[in-house]
Write a structure and sequence with these properties.
- The complex is a heterodimer.
- Helices cover 31% and strands 37% of the residues of chain A.
- Chain A is an alpha+beta fold.
- Chain A has one domain: Aldehyde Oxidoreductase, domain 3 (Alpha-Beta Complex).
- By secondary structure, chain B is an alpha+beta fold.
- Chain B has a single domain, classed as Roll (Ubiquitin-like (UB roll)), CATH 3.10.20.
- Chain B is built from 2 helices and 5 strands; from the N terminus they run βαβαβββ.
- Chain B has a 5-stranded mixed beta sheet with strand order 2-1-5-3-4.
- Chain B is globular.
- Classes of the chains: A alpha+beta, B alpha+beta.
């Protein structure tokens, strides 16, 4: 873990359903919240040239990603009426069918929660120095390309 | 002067190493030139350059202990 004053977003391996449930539960005492929006990115078993993706291995320039994520978070808070926002991204191996990105925004009202969540997901994919390596069933690999 | 160079993603497949220490360089162009000499395959690759965690647009003067990173297109999420 790099020494940084910025909030860590990275977790080793997949984001588990239990972890997601725990995070939802942790918001039950924040009764000014009226809406949560959750995005879950799941690893797809894409078929590329007859080979199937079995997992994605994620790496990142963590220190830079956390600085960038901090800026994205600040900008999102200044743009939308948010109570809180949480982001978790996997590093290392995440098998197909497992969750690799968890974005969770909360607001008094649904529109802000939904729009902020959607904007954060787009920015995370575009602006965070994270790389996914698609691993195939025959042990070869291909570097993932984001659309 | 000593500068650290970090390599990520598919660029690391070419260099085989994630980090280099480079001495006696003045700017980012010199770093790229040196990397290209050792790893000609890098010339074909598309990437951004960050100095001290900030993406740079053109050639940038370096100072002692700066970190330069070569970043291929992102593919997180």
């Amino acid at each position: 873990m790099p020494a940084t004053k910025f909030k860590n977003i990275f977790i080793e391996g997949p984001v588990t359903p239990a972890f997601i449930a725990e995070k939802i539960l942790a918001h039950q005492d924040k009764v000014n919240i009226g809406a949560h929006s959750i995005f879950l990115g799941q690893v797809r078993a894409d078929e590329i040239n007859g080979k199937t993706v079995t997992a994605i291995e994620y790496t990142s320039y963590e220190e830079m990603a956390l600085v960038k994520m901090h800026a994205i978070r600040e900008e999102t808070f200044s743009k939308f009426e948010l109570t809180c926002a949480h982001v978790y991204h996997s590093l290392g191996i995440v098998k197909s069918g497992e969750i690799s990105l968890f974005v969770f925004t909360s607001s008094p009202h649904r529109r802000a929660a939904i729009d902020a969540c959607s904007e954060m997901v787009e920015r995370i994919k575009k602006e965070l120095p994270v790389w996914g390596k698609e691993l195939f069933d025959d042990e070869s690999y291909k570097w993932k390309v984001n659309n | 002067m000593k500068v650290k160079v970090l390599i990520f993603g598919q660029l690391k497949d070419i260099t085989q190493s994630a980090s280099f220490e480079v001495t006696d360089v003045n700017d980012t162009n010199e770093i790229i030139e040196r990397m290209n000499n050792v790893y000609p395959e890098l010339k074909k690759m598309k990437y951004l350059v960050a100095v001290e965690k900030e993406i740079i647009q053109g050639n940038t003067i370096l100072r002692d202990n700066f970190t330069v990173a070569l970043l291929p297109p992102y593919s997180g999420g």
